Every structure is written in structure tokens, then in C-alpha cells.
């Protein structure tokens, strides 16, 4: 059994998609990051970095319990565990390259673009412009790569597609002010539609819907989500 520590944000969504695609048995454990539950000692014992997603596999290597955190590490672990969505052996170098392009570039810059456009105080135009433009640049890299391709790596659906889907799904937040946020990226738009219409995507979107996560971005939320902005206790 896999315990899946989840909040409805892009990185956990990738893991929900893999679990649903692979048909793995799992238990969803809500972690309300807007309340600060990611900082509780019980969760920090699973992910010392205090971020979701994380999983605990009670049937890990050799039958031992395994904890894995960071969405890319989890995708690789689950791919290796099940033998699914990894492409061919010849695809592995490119798979790793694109997976870490998303992990170190597309994802973080998209997240910072969202933060500075939607959550940061006024008067930070340099930061807003930098992260928005860098997010767009990463979109352009993926756009060029997807020309004439149905999938990010090789000739089939892999964890690289799942990883990219998790963030491209939030394009409306990243590309604030755009009526059609993917209009400038037709290859991404075509690729995204192909992934987004898979039956497992609808099931992944439903994960956690039965839990009442906190919605109000008040002072408690700001301290929980952005603790580095406050003096250490």
C-alpha cells in the first residue's frame, strides 16, 4: 500500500496522475499546506523539506517501508517499481534530461511567476517581470521540442509527460492576463489536450475533492506558505 501525502497543487497532481494511470492501490493523506500541516513533526519525518508530495510505500525494496519525497523522485521510484511509463531503455537519457528540465526550470519558474503575480506585495515589478519572462522562456523550449511530437520523450507516454502536465495545467495562473494562455504555444496546446483527455486525468483531478482544504489566504496561510518572509522564532 502507498500512502500519498497530498495537497491540490501542481506537484502532487503529477503523482495522483501516475497512481491513477498505473492502477496502484493507495491511501490519500491530506496535508493542508495553507494551515501549515507540512511543518508538523510527523510530516517532517517523511519529508524534512516540508513540501508535498511525498509517499510512504509499505512494500518498498526488499519488503521494507520506503519514504520518497520530491515529485520527480517519486515519479522515478514508481516508474521503476511498476516498470511503467519510462519509455524504452534507449529513451532513458532523454527522459532524465526532460524530467529534470521540468524539475529545475519549468516548474520552479512557473511557481515563482505565480507567486509574484498573484501573492507578492505591489512594487516588485522587476521580480514579476523576471519570473514571468523566464516561465515563458521555458514554455518556448518545450514548444520547440514538441513540434511534430505527440509526447515529450520517445514515441509513448512517460513520466515526463505527467510531470509537464502538472504545471502546464496551471498555465492560466502562470500567464496571468491571457484569455487563452496557450495561444502562443500551439504545440504545447495540442500536446496538453492529448494528455488532458486521458481517463486517468479526470480521476487524478478528483483526488482530494472530498477533503475541505483551507481556502482563505490569511496571515496563518502566509506564515505557513512563506515562512522565510518572517523572523525565526
From TrEMBL:
Domain of life (superkingdom):
Bacteria
Q: Which Gene3D superfamilies match?
A: 1.20.1050.10, Glutaredoxin
User: GST N-terminal domain location, by residue?
Assistant: 1-86
Q: Name one Pfam family in it.
A: GST_C_2
* Alphabetized InterPro entries for the sequence: Glutathione-S-Trfase_C-like, Glutathione-S-Trfase_C_sf, Glutathione_S-Trfase, Glutathione_S-Trfase_N, Thioredoxin-like_sf
The UniProt record lists the GST C-terminal domain at: 88-217
PANTHER family reported in the protein's UniProt record? DISULFIDE-BOND OXIDOREDUCTASE YFCG (PTHR44051:SF19), GLUTATHIONE S-TRANSFERASE-RELATED (PTHR44051)
The protein in question is named Glutathione S-transferase N-terminal domain-containing protein
